[in-house]
Design a protein that fits this description.
four-stranded antiparallel β-sheet; seven-stranded mixed beta barrel; 36% strand; alpha+beta
Length: 396
């Protein structure tokens, strides 16, 4: 007997997977878990539409779900080893052999398929949506989280499967804030306030790869780091240097060989601006008296951090709104931590440094687009999210 279908619904305010006569668009709102500072998406699954919280993994290769917690575990369709879906899930021939070690007639490892459906004024479905079905708690710390939602550079991530199903570009936009966020994929238009000049407002840099990283991770090349215009000395014995973008950590981490010089350079530049140091507050290493940190319309007035990418002309600037964190009543801290000796990437950009920056992950074109802080336009990611919520979508 064929197994009944398991329907996975992405929770939205008004629309989620919404095809119209002009566009096919995925809109996925996110919430930020206050205990772990990780972004979480809520999904509904099964005949009774039970809610499940999934931690967002920016570079994750797939949607991973703890199927043992499902009220309808028998509704998940197994993926046969002799199938295109199995090859897509396992990426290559060696992965296929591992997943199907017991023979071609077996089930393809942990991989399963489900129909993916989205509510709204019109409804779209992705048949045979591939997930990794595992048993046991994922251990992300956030209460009730039972899996991950992978957005990475793989054939089976959420945006990649949506792009394949609807014939749209393999890309998505992300905008994260201190309490929420939004993921938008498809062919747009997405945000009327910025769509008109989005090609001029974003800077693009090629996506990179590394042997130590997951192939689905989002990496970009790093040429140098400047604090208030002064270049830091990077370890020339271990190039190429790279930056990894991650939602798995709340604050940016810098590899230990570089962090001490980075922290002292920032502290020195801050001291020249009149910022007085105070004892550090964990997990931060450099903190200041809040009374000596001037405020601007775009956040704290702090030394600029420039991540110089493929050339001197292409740099990611981190200003005070993204570099500083109010750790206590007595301390405003540099929101960058020591990543330790085991950090493989020179810099891992964490959630705080990605806040209120419009990002385009164009994995089809192998490039990353990033804009200046939205505060420069007197906008925030919450504005873009509410703007999308208020849009009307015609039915097919």
């Amino acid at each position: 007997m064929a197994a009944p279908s398991l329907y996975l619904l992405l929770l939205c305010s008004l629309a989620c997977l919404v095809p119209s006569s002009r566009s096919r668009t995925l809109f996925l709102p996110l919430a930020k878990d206050p205990s772990t500072l990780r972004y979480v998406a809520t999904v509904y699954h099964g005949p009774s539409l039970d809610p499940v919280d999934l931690a967002v993994d920016l570079g994750g290769p797939s949607l991973w779900l703890d199927c043992s917690a499902s009220s309808s575990p028998s509704a998940v369709r197994p993926v046969p080893c002799r199938s295109i879906q199995c090859l897509a899930a396992t990426s290559d021939a060696s992965g296929l052999r591992r997943a199907c070690a017991s023979g071609a007639s077996a089930v393809c490892g942990p991989w399963r398929s489900i129909p993916l459906t989205g509510p709204g004024r019109s409804v779209a479905a992705v048949d045979r949506f591939l997930i990794s079905c595992a048993r046991g708690p994922p251990g992300y710390g956030a209460t009730g989280v039972r899996g991950t939602l992978g957005l990475g550079r793989s054939r089976i991530s959420l945006p990649s499967q949506v792009a394949t199903a609807f014939g749209v570009r393999r890309r998505f936009f992300a905008c994260l804030s201190a309490s929420e966020g939004v993921i938008v994929a498809g062919d747009g238009p997405f945000f009327p306030r910025v769509d008109g000049d989005i090609s001029r407002s974003l800077t693009y840099t090629p996506l990179a790869t590394a042997k130590w990283a997951r192939s689905s991770d989002y990496l970009i090349n790093l040429t140098s780091i400047k604090i208030d215009g002064k270049r830091l000395s990077l370890d020339s014995s271990s190039p190429p240097h790279s930056i990894k973008l991650s939602t798995a950590i709340p604050y940016t981490a810098v590899a230990s060989p570089i962090y001490p010089a980075f922290a002292e350079a920032f502290a020195g530049a801050a001291s020249a601006m009149g910022m007085a140091r105070v004892p550090p507050v964990a997990p931060f290493g450099v903190c200041f008296d809040p009374r000596t940190v001037a405020a601007t319309g775009a956040g704290p007035d702090a030394p600029a951090i420039d991540l110089v990418l493929q050339s001197e002309m292409v740099r990611w600037r981190i200003g005070g709104s993204n570099s500083m964190v109010r750790a206590s009543d007595e301390a405003t801290c540099l929101g960058v931590v020591d990543g330790g000796d085991g950090l493989r990437s020179t810099v891992v950009l964490g959630g705080h440094q990605l806040e209120d920056v419009l990002l385009e992950f164009d994995f089809g074109g192998s490039r990353l687009g990033f804009g200046p802080p939205l505060s420069a336009r007197r906008l925030a990611c919450s504005d873009l999210r509410s703007e999308f919520n208020s849009m009307a979508f015609p039915s097919l």
